[in-house]
Amino acid sequence: MARTLLCFGDSNTHGSPPIVTRGEAYHRFDADTRWPRLVASTLPDWEVTEEGLPGRTAQFPDPVAGAHMDGREGLKIALQSHGPIDALAIMLGTNDTKTRFGATPGKITAGIASLLDIAMGLEMQQRHGGFRILVICPPPVLEQGPIRSEFVGAREVSLKLPALYAVLAEARGVGFIDAGALIQVSPVDGIHLEPDAHRKLGKAVAETVGRF
């Protein structure tokens, strides 16, 4: 019987390509490119469910994009919409570094802790019969490209996240991947992943989940 992995994240889980021009039409990488689909192709005994929402944060309702960008509510909905699952991969934090949120590295990590509280709580664990969790720290942002004005000061904040995420993951007893040790964001917009980065990340996630 196939096991199920739920991938919960933002535009880099959704498969949004780097932004070339601000306000351009919606695009999405195809299934042969997106990292969750690459995990599925690598692990034939796993089904992979994609729950990537462009603009999603770990904890902030967005005054521009909407309150539904708050990952805490989104995770509850996802865990109640799908199931049963055997593993959950969470990759969030990039959008939390946006200038308008004014979030410190510690505050962003606290948002990830909130998501773990939801996922590891008795309600969700009982609903799915128990499941493993993998926290993925996104690669640091670059303050360049057409949306750089939204991320003023974000690189310094994002560079401090891997160490904090790692401590949190160890304390909670969940899996951890520092994506920034494997891949980089695209220099085109400083936020999104190029196809090769999707490939490398998919390989790393598949190796980790395959050991669950």
Automatic annotation (TrEMBL):
The SGNH hydrolase-type esterase domain, residue ranges: 7-199
Species the sequence originates in: Microvirga terrae
UniProt GO MF annotations: hydrolase activity
Protein name per its UniProtKB record: SGNH/GDSL hydrolase family protein
Keywords of this entry: Hydrolase
